[in-house]
């Protein structure tokens, strides 16, 4: 039988692959991944929970300032007083700013004048996490788009990628611009991007997000979108709701009743 | 009283209780609560021996940072069953008494960790 070089290499390659495969089966230590199921018991599980928010803009009569202030206080968000350096986790937008692609040629006066609370949408298909070169921003297992400030290099790709303007850059040292420190949460430093974290540090303690708690009209509903029996899912099925820029396919987890 | 009558009354009470519970338990309270609340045990002992913490605290903190930020796992359980929240605040809740707790050794060893650029030292008041 004639063997040329190419045939020999092909057969040798397949042989080696089969050998390694068998070895990994015999000696479990050589298998690629070791999974300890017990270690995952208290962590968020992939696909089990997807946190979401429903904002009833009809109930926002007092102007939402209290919720913005509560959020910015418990997360040590700096206030530079200058729109150029503005850092914001949650803020007020007009209806047109929040829903620029929604039909609004002749809106009713109530809708045209309405102020909408806007924040990070914690998209299921988040463009920011794809843009991040260091994985400083990433999708948590419970649907929250989280920031790892330790890893952020301040390239601001995520700010360009986010279609909602939910991200802010610290052009200056934020510490002097914080009126009163909230001791249970760290500040950021100059040169990192920051945004809403859906209060993941409060959720783990069983508390609702700060904006939900601060809302006097109970206009914000927070809950698990993956649980068909949750209050937010029941409210979503009972009301007509909107997402911001749904045509982009980012699948936002923040919903609005207009 | 006849046994059948007792049975009827007990059944009525049970039915009433069940109806009351099902009527008043549909509130939204359960929605925002999370399955694993952190219960922090106040402790006079550290999570590991003094010797281990002296040499390996940076490894512990790095592991904690990864677990909390990336995995969302905030609960540390020591081999003897004590439970702590994985947070710098847990360390500082005991060690903040000594103002030079971090600084003393770090200055001697000439290491300059950047923890306090963002995390708040207990001595920083404002």
Automatic annotation (TrEMBL), chain A:
Sorted alphabetically, which keywords does the UniProt record give? 4Fe-4S, Iron, Iron-sulfur, Metal-binding
Query: Could you tell me one molecular function GO term of this UniProt entry?
Result: 4 iron, 4 sulfur cluster binding
Q: Where is the 4Fe-4S ferredoxin-type domain?
A: 143-172
Where do the coiled-coil regions begin and end? none
Keyword Nucleus appears in the UniProt entry: no
- The answer to keyword Metal-binding applying to this record is yes
Q: Which InterPro entries match?
A: 4Fe4S_Fe-S-bd (IPR017896), 4Fe4S_Fe_S_CS (IPR017900), DsrO-like (IPR054822), ET_IronSulfur_Cluster-Binding (IPR050954), TAT_signal (IPR006311)
- What domain of life? Bacteria
NCBIfam families named among the record's database cross-references: DsrO
Q: PANTHER family in the record, alphabetically?
A: PROTEIN NRFC (PTHR43177), PROTEIN NRFC HOMOLOG (PTHR43177:SF3)
Output this protein's name: 4Fe-4S dicluster domain-containing protein
Which organism is this protein's natural source? Answer: Prosthecochloris aestuarii
Automatic annotation (TrEMBL), chain B:
InterPro entries in the cross-refs: DsrJ, Multihaem_cyt_sf
Q: What is this protein called?
A: Sulfite reductase-associated electron transfer protein DsrJ
- Species source reads Prosthecochloris aestuarii
Q: What is the lineage of its organism?
A: Bacteria, Pseudomonadati, Chlorobiota, Chlorobiia, Chlorobiales
